């Protein structure tokens, strides 16, 4: 029987994965993690698609970026597929995250217990405020941002989160890059300039809420239109 549902072996360079598929791969990974925890060894496309809340063709297309073309009836080996998605997402690497800005957001992120199981270890939390420096957040102690370069070196951080006010974000972003960090997630509401070799992602909840509001408004408008059509019998 064909095993073409199995993804490409480890070490294979994956094709460029479109952002929407990339986002869904993280959902499959979480679903596979739950199946693994339940002792499930194999899963069909349909079952995995249902667990991840997508349709099977979309799942098969997404997994095809890993070299899997989905032959019906064979099923995926849960732990193997989980490893392959982790490898494609770069999660087999040990990500060590430094959080710059230990305010509301920084502390909440540093205290979140769910990162470890997803391959991210928060190794440092930094701030400029003397009242905040030295505070304990979980097992971390807030370090002074003036020592950022040394902290990055000592903790071997290779990823950073910026949870600082907008007006200091660029300067801190530059210092992180000079310290050797090339993957940065920024919450600061400002456009940051980074060189080509640096991966910068921005989280903007206000934009997400605006998009949500737009969809809610459209859904409401089409519901009103449908009711009006029903009333008129058209
Ligand atoms: N993207 C989003 O969805 C989203 C949501 C909430 C907040 N934010 C943004 O995230 C950032 C943090 O929000 P917050 O609510 O935690 O704010 P906060 O004021 O509670 O925390 C900011 C922290 O940054 C520290 N700080 C200031 N200057 C610094 C510097 N030069 N070096 C190091 N630390 C410095 C402050 O001392 C403070 O502890 C803000 O820019 C905010 O606008 C974004």
From TrEMBL:
<dbReference type="InterPro" id="IPR022876">
    <property type="entry name" value="Tscrpt_rep_Rex"/>
</dbReference>
<keyword id="KW-0963">Cytoplasm</keyword>
<protein>
    <recommendedName>
        <fullName>Redox-sensing transcriptional repressor Rex</fullName>
    </recommendedName>
</protein>
<dbReference type="GO" id="GO:0003677">
    <property type="term" value="F:DNA binding"/>
</dbReference>
<dbReference type="InterPro" id="IPR036388">
    <property type="entry name" value="WH-like_DNA-bd_sf"/>
</dbReference>
<dbReference type="InterPro" id="IPR003781">
    <property type="entry name" value="CoA-bd"/>
</dbReference>
<comment type="similarity">
    <text>Belongs to the transcriptional regulatory Rex family.</text>
</comment>
<keyword id="KW-0678">Repressor</keyword>
<keyword id="KW-0805">Transcription regulation</keyword>
<dbReference type="GO" id="GO:0045892">
    <property type="term" value="P:negative regulation of DNA-templated transcription"/>
</dbReference>
<dbReference type="InterPro" id="IPR036291">
    <property type="entry name" value="NAD(P)-bd_dom_sf"/>
</dbReference>
<dbReference type="InterPro" id="IPR036390">
    <property type="entry name" value="WH_DNA-bd_sf"/>
</dbReference>
<keyword id="KW-0520">NAD</keyword>
<dbReference type="GO" id="GO:0005737">
    <property type="term" value="C:cytoplasm"/>
</dbReference>
<dbReference type="GO" id="GO:0003700">
    <property type="term" value="F:DNA-binding transcription factor activity"/>
</dbReference>
<comment type="function">
    <text>Modulates transcription in response to changes in cellular NADH/NAD(+) redox state.</text>
</comment>
<feature type="binding site">
    <location>
        <begin position="101"/>
        <end position="106"/>
    </location>
    <ligand>
        <name>NAD(+)</name>
    </ligand>
</feature>
<dbReference type="Pfam" id="PF06971">
    <property type="entry name" value="Put_DNA-bind_N"/>
</dbReference>
<feature type="DNA-binding region" description="H-T-H motif">
    <location>
        <begin position="27"/>
        <end position="66"/>
    </location>
</feature>
<feature type="domain" description="CoA-binding">
    <location>
        <begin position="90"/>
        <end position="191"/>
    </location>
</feature>
<dbReference type="GO" id="GO:0051775">
    <property type="term" value="P:response to redox state"/>
</dbReference>
<keyword id="KW-0804">Transcription</keyword>
<dbReference type="InterPro" id="IPR009718">
    <property type="entry name" value="Rex_DNA-bd_C_dom"/>
</dbReference>
<comment type="subunit">
    <text>Homodimer.</text>
</comment>
<dbReference type="InterPro" id="IPR058236">
    <property type="entry name" value="Rex_actinobacterial-type"/>
</dbReference>
<keyword id="KW-0238">DNA-binding</keyword>
<dbReference type="Pfam" id="PF02629">
    <property type="entry name" value="CoA_binding"/>
</dbReference>
């Amino acid at each position: 029987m064909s095993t073409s549902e199995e993804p490409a072996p480890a070490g294979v360079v994956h094709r460029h994965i479109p952002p929407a598929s990339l986002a869904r791969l993280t959902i499959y990974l979480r679903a596979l993690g739950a199946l693994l925890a339940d002792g499930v060894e194999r899963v069909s496309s349909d079952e995995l698609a249902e667990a991840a809340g997508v349709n099977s063709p979309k799942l098969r297309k997404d997994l095809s970026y890993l070299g899997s073309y989905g032959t019906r009836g064979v099923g995926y080996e849960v732990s193997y597929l989980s490893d392959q998605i982790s490898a494609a997402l770069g999660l087999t690497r040990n990500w060590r995250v430094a959080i710059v800005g230990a305010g509301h957001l920084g502390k909440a992120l540093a205290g979140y217990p769910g990162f470890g199981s997803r391959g991210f270890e928060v190794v440092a939390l930094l701030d400029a405020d003397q009242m905040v420096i030295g505070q304990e957040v979980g097992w971390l102690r807030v370090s002074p941002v003036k020592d950022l370069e040394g902290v990055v070196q000592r903790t071997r951080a290779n990823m950073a989160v910026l949870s600082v006010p907008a007006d200091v974000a660029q300067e801190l972003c530059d210092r992180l890059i000079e310290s050797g960090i090339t993957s940065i997630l920024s919450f600061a509401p400002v456009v940051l300039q980074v060189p080509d070799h640096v991966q910068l992602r921005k989280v903007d909840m206000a934009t997400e809420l605006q998009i949500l509001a737009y969809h809610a408004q459209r859904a409401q408008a089409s519901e009103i239109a449908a009711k009006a059509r029903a009333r008129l019998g058209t």
